Sequence to fold (245 residues):
Amino acid sequence: MGRGKVEMRRIENKISRQVTFAKRRNGLLKKAYELSLLCDAEVALIIFSGRGRLFEFSSSSCMYKTLERYRTCNYNSQEATPTTENEINYEDYLKLKTRVEYLQSSQRNILGEELGPLSMKELDQIENQIDVSLKNIRSRKNKVLLDELFDLKTKEQELQDQNKDLRKKLQDTTNLGENALHMSWQDGGKGSSSGHAVEPYPELLPQPEQDSSMQIGYRPAYMDQLNNEDMASQRLNLGSSTGWI
Fold:
């Protein structure tokens, strides 16, 4: 039983439309590949889905080269027609658009997307590009790490030098204090040996007790005489009061 004739109109069912697009897209890409391989033809195929997604196939290494060849052939056939400023601007627009599309497609391929239509040669080229990019990134990363390590070592050396200077200053200060103390003790020893002892803290030394006998002008015989006369006068006063005398 043969296949029924398919009516050529837009498929309303969304799922059926997507399935049909995927099948016919793959078939068209396959036919383009077979045509380029069997007939040694340069084929370029560009497909945009309903969502704006790009699918392409190029028998050459670069789609951009095939499009440039197409524009060259197309413009050469229209050389007799005078070009206006709008046509020139449109040509520039097409070139830029084609270039942007090629760069976007290359970026997607590098990210691992839409690799189905690519040939083995194109896959090898993308792999080589990724390897070169990784080598450059790793080289730059190693250089940055080495520069940071060198800066850290320089700072470490500066801190060590500052630490040495501080230790030297502290040692000099300690030695200076010890020398001053030693010299003061030596000066004290010289004073005591010459009969003039140096008393750095006289208020801490015990004070001798004052003795009345050590006072100037003190005469013990004279003081005894005065005491005897006082006692005699007191006896006389006592006798006169009692009637003894």
About this structure: The longest strand covers residues 44-48.
